[in-house]
TrEMBL record, chain A:
The keyword Cell membrane applies. It comes from Terrabacter aerolatus. The lineage of its organism: Bacteria, Bacillati, Actinomycetota, Actinomycetes, Micrococcales. It is found in: Cell membrane. Keywords: Cell membrane, Membrane, Transmembrane, Transmembrane helix. The chain crosses the membrane at residues 31-53, 59-80, 87-105, 111-133, 215-233, 264-283, 295-326, 338-357. It comes from the Bacteria. GO terms for cellular component: plasma membrane. This is Branched-chain amino acid ABC transporter permease. Its main location: membrane. GO terms for molecular function: branched-chain amino acid transmembrane transporter activity. It is a multi-pass membrane protein. Pfam families: BPD_transp_2.
Automatic annotation (TrEMBL), chain B:
Pfam families: BPD_transp_2. Keywords: Amino-acid transport, Cell inner membrane, Cell membrane, Membrane, Transmembrane, Transmembrane helix, Transport. It is found in: Cell membrane. This is Branched-chain amino acid ABC transporter permease. The lineage of its organism: Bacteria, Bacillati, Actinomycetota, Actinomycetes, Micrococcales. One of its GO terms (molecular function) is L-valine transmembrane transporter activity. Belongs to the binding-protein-dependent transport system permease family. LivHM subfamily. It comes from Terrabacter aerolatus. One of its GO terms (biological process) is D-alanine transmembrane transport. It comes from the Bacteria. InterPro entries: ABC_transp_permease (IPR001851), BCAA_transport_permease (IPR052157). CDD domains: TM_PBP1_LivH_like (cd06582). The chain crosses the membrane at residues 20-39, 46-66, 72-94, 106-129, 178-195, 224-245, 265-287, 299-316.
Length: 382, 329
């Protein structure tokens, strides 16, 4: 018994020390570190670091895909992680965002991209409210199936309605306007050591058709804004209301939390971020069709959140990177990726149900549970 | 609308046959939900494996169109044996691998759903990659016919030639239609009696009503859960045979859409309620056929999902709305 108690106690200082070390750093050092990290992320597609760079597919494009996964995971984390609502039809909002951009910039109107993206966010948000208002009254697992149905309804509607381009989809979605400020050179590793390669450059914010790096920069910037928003909302009254609703809806209601309204808010915000990611996806792809919004994508999004640790924003980012990046990096195994993915989900559910990076509160709760279990066991044996 | 009126009986009979398949699959969802309060997301794959078992056994026995009555009866009987055995086995395996470890750890329902989604992917992909898997084992030559084009449709030879038995309102009701509808109802009655009268059935009802009290009364919960999965799997196997006889085509991802529809049927009738599953299956089959007659067949699946949303909004307990435990206790 002594070994079981010492194990969590032994782990505690090491896991806390990382956070402590970061916390006790001088403010200036912290800021510098963050800036260095941000610059590193911005330059990542141009560093061409061996091994992590994908061969065969354009690394900038892959990073953009990963960035959309991160954005989607942040949005879905609000719904699944914070408010505890299982949404299996999140791809529906993603599609709504993408199609709003498609319809308003190419198919039926030619509005400016800058104007259309906010519209896409609002439309996705409204669709979230329309879906949420009636369905959030049903119990958790029913909600999963209703949202699953919603995702399919959206896709089938896209396939069947000629006004939205039908099965052919919408093409010729214009690029966002850009400014050509400066060129960023890339690194060349072919000599074994990094050499600055001035011939292969990316122009800062020129949205072309061959170079996807500027799209990645755009996505990265948006992720930054969404993260900031996420941090502010989570630490506000709204975030606490979500947490209370998730943990015990009846108790929260008794304490005066209008749970239904907060659940609806979570749904709407999640939908808005989903729509934003969809809009980005449509912008970069230039072409969308119902096939881009298969139900599998919903499951992948959900998996990103759960794998990373629902409720912890850094966790879901890790999860999104895992789900978005590994299939691209290991394309040789493309045939098997769904199989491996399914296996990973099962193993994770069995051996690490709280995700790779669970929220701190979950870790604390689990530790408390373990201590309780050890105590009860001790009583039973005594 | 005119289309619906003109071909009313055609849509009705088609709706009832596909509804029978929904109903049988829905039983699996309802039974598991009754005892575990979980949506068995991977149940659709249990059904899909049944369709392949039914197909393979006919291929092994050399089934072909235009055989004598005795021969056809033998083939169909073997289809039932193979599909029920396969689906039952997969369902039990699923419970062992994806659910039992979680139950031992008291995992929340969300995690069970994730595990089930994972299991569903694994099962579907194994079927979709069967040609590769057979290649590794080195059985290419012997099993070539069974694994060919493993990502494409696999078709069953028309072993029962559809023949009109009688005509109603201009629609020729075939022997296959009658066999599917009557067969499904007979199987449902047998299951209903099993749950109502047998010892194991009593165990299932007891666990559904109150797992802890049932355990105190000496019911082995793990065993009851296993039996529940087995029974649900066997029902899905029966559904698979009817589906293959009526539709005749299956694929590694054929389970998904049928699974969602069958779940809709289970919710429609009142999840946890066996008779509700039967009613829900037939109602859903009819509703989506009538609906597609009115708004166009490409909207058929949308009709089914909209119906699901509406039911959950206005009558979340379903049409019959009783749980397995409360029903005729």
């Amino acid at each position: 018994m002594s070994t079981t108690t010492s194990a969590p106690a032994g782990r505690k200082p090491s896991s806390r020390s990382f956070k402590e070390r970061v916390d006790t750093m001088p403010r200036a050092v912290k800021i510098v570190l963050w800036v260095v990290f941000a610059v590193f992320l911005f330059l990542l597609p141009l560093l061409n670091i061996p091994f992590i760079t994908t061969e065969g597919s354009d690394f900038g494009g892959v990073l953009f895909t990963v960035a959309t996964y991160v954005l989607v995971a942040l949005g879905l984390n609000i719904v699944v992680g914070y408010a505890g609502l299982l949404d299996l039809g999140y791809v529906g909002f993603y599609a709504v965002g993408a199609y709003t951009v498609g319809v308003l910039t190419s198919e039926h109107a030619h509005l400016s991209w800058v104007l259309v993206v906010p519209i896409a966010i609002v439309v996705a948000m409204v669709s979230g409210v329309i879906l949420g208002a009636p369905t959030l009254r049903v119990r958790g697992d029913y909600l999963a199936i209703v949202t699953l149905g919603f995702g399919e309804i959206v896709r089938l509607t896209l396939v069947n309605s000629q006004w939205l381009g039908g099965a052919q989809g919408i093409s010729d979605i214009p690029k966002p306007p850009g400014v050509e400020l400066f060129k960023v050179p890339s690194l060349d590793w072919s000599a074994g050591v990094p050499v600055v390669d001035l011939s292969t450059t990316s122009t800062f914010l020129k949205f072309g058709i061959n170079d996807f790096v500027p799209y990645y920069w755009l996505a990265l910037g948006i992720i930054g804004l969404v993260l900031l928003f996420d941090i502010l909302v989570k630490s506000s009254r709204v975030g606490r209301a979500w947490e209370a609703t998730r943990e015990d809806e009846d108790a929260a209601e008794l304490m005066g939390v209008p749970t239904f309204r907060f659940k609806l808010l979570a749904f709407a915000l999640g939908a808005a971020i989903g729509g934003l990611s969809g809009a980005l996806f449509a912008t970069k792809a230039g072409f969308i069709s119902p096939d881009s919004f298969q139900l599998l994508l919903s499951i992948l999004f959900l998996a990103a959140v759960v794998v990373g640790g629902a409720g912890n924003r850094w966790g879901v980012i890790v999860g999104a990177i895992v789900v978005g990046y590994f299939p691209e990096r290991f394309r040789d195994f493309a045939d098997f990726r769904v199989l491996v993915f399914g296996l990973a989900l099962m193993l994770l559910a069995i051996f690490r149900p709280q995700g790779l990076l669970p929220p701190r509160r979950t870790v604390r709760a689990k530790r408390a549970d373990d201590r309780q279990a050890v105590l009860e066991e001790g009583e039973a044996s005594a | 609308m005119q289309n619906l009126i003109d071909n009313f009986f055609s849509y009705t009979i088609t709706g009832l046959t596909i509804g029978a398949v929904y109903a049988l699959i829905a039983l699996g969802y309802t039974l598991v939900y009754g005892v575990l309060r979980l949506i068995n997301f991977a149940h659709s794959e249990v059904f899909m494996y049944g369709t392949f078992a039914a197909l393979w056994v006919v291929m092994i026995l050399g089934g072909h169109p235009g055989a004598g009555v005795g021969q056809v009866i033998f083939w169909v009987a073997m289809m039932f044996v193979a599909a029920m055995a396969m689906s039952g086995l997969i369902a039990v395996l699923l419970e062992r691998v994806a659910y039992r470890p979680l139950r031992k750890r008291n995992a929340p329902p969300l995690i069970a759903l994730i595990s089930a989604i994972g299991a569903s992917f694994v099962l579907a992909e194994i079927m979709g990659l069967r040609s590769r898997i057979v290649g590794w084992v080195g059985l290419d030559d012997t099993l070539r016919d069974y694994v060919r084009n493993s990502r494409n449709n696999a078709g069953l030879p028309t072993i029962i030639q559809p023949q009109p038995i009688f005509t109603i309102g201009g629609y020729h009701v075939t022997n296959v239609d009658i066999f599917v509808i009557v067969g499904a109802i007979v199987i449902m009655v047998i299951l209903d009696q099993f749950v109502k009268r047998s010892r194991l059935g009593r165990g299932i009802r007891a666990v559904a009503m109150d797992p802890e009290a049932a355990a105190l009364m000496g019911v082995n919960r793990d065993r009851v859960i296993q039996v529940t999965f087995l029974v649900g799997g066997v029902m899905a196997g029966a559904a698979a045979v009817f589906y293959m006889l009526k539709i005749g085509i299956t694929r590694y991802d054929a389970g998904f859409i049928l699974g969602v529809k069958a779940f809709t049927a289970a919710v429609l009738g009142g999840i946890g309620n066996l008779r509700g599953a039967l009613l829900g299956g037939f109602v859903l089959g009819l509703a989506e056929n009538y609906g597609s007659a009115v708004v166009g067949s490409q909207w058929k699946d949308v009709v089914a999902f909209v119906l699901l949303v509406l039911i959950l909004l206005f009558r979340p307990t379903g049409l019959l709305g009783e749980s397995l435990g409360k029903a005729r206790a």
